[in-house]
Amino acid sequence: MSHVAERTGGCACGAVRLKTTGEPKRGGLCHCLTCRKAHASAFNPFVVFAPQAVEVLGTTQAWLSSPGYVRRFCPECGSRVLAENSDGAGGREIELSSGSFDEIGLFSPQYESWTVRREPWLDHLEAPQYDENRPALPEPAD
Question: What tens digit of pLDDT does each residue of 56-110 get?
C-alpha cells in the first residue's frame, strides 16, 4: 500500500485551514507587481494543485485580481490563503502560497516568473527564468 502525502496549513489566525493530498503539479516564485503587493513581499513562493487535492475549511473572501485569477483571503486576519486560477485549457487549479503550510521546506521552486520585476538585490534561482508569465506547458501523461 502506497502512502499519499497529506500536508496542512492555513491563515495566520487559524480561522481558515487547508489540507492537500498528493504532490503539487508545479511550484515557482512570482515577482509580478500584484503578487508583490498582495503579499507585501518582494515575491510570492507558491505551489499549484488540482482542485480535488485541496480541502479548505473556514470562510474566505475573494477578489478577482486579473482575468481568470481569484485570490482568497481570511476575513479575520487578512492572510491570503489561496488563489483559483484558470489552467489555460478550460480547467481550474488551486495555487497555495508556500508560507501558508505549517511545515517549512516542503517544496522548492521549479521556476521564476515576472523576473523583470525581481528586486535587483535578490539573486536568481538556478531554475528557468521567465520575464513575464510562464508559458502554459502540457501536463505530463499519467
Answer: 999 999 999 888 889 999 999 999 999 998 866 778 999 999 999 999 999 999 9
Amino acid identity, residue 112? Answer: E
Cβ neighbors of 69 (< 8 A, separation 6 or more) are 83, 84, 85, 86
Q: Measure CA 66 to chain center.
A: 15
Contact, 77 vs 61, CB < 8 A?
Answer: no
- Predicted structure pTM score: 0.87
Residue spans of the domains in the chain: they are 6-26+45-107
Grid cell listed for 83: 488563489
- Higher-scoring residue by pLDDT: 46, 2: 46
Cα distances (angstroms) measured from residue 26 to each of 31, 32, 37, 60: 16, 18, 23, 24
CB 95 within 8 A of CB 86: no
**For range 124-134, the mean pLDDT:** 90
CA distances from 45 to 4, 15, 39, 76, 97 (A): 23, 22, 10, 23, 6
The third-level CATH classification (topology) of the domain covering 6-26+45-107 is 2.170.150
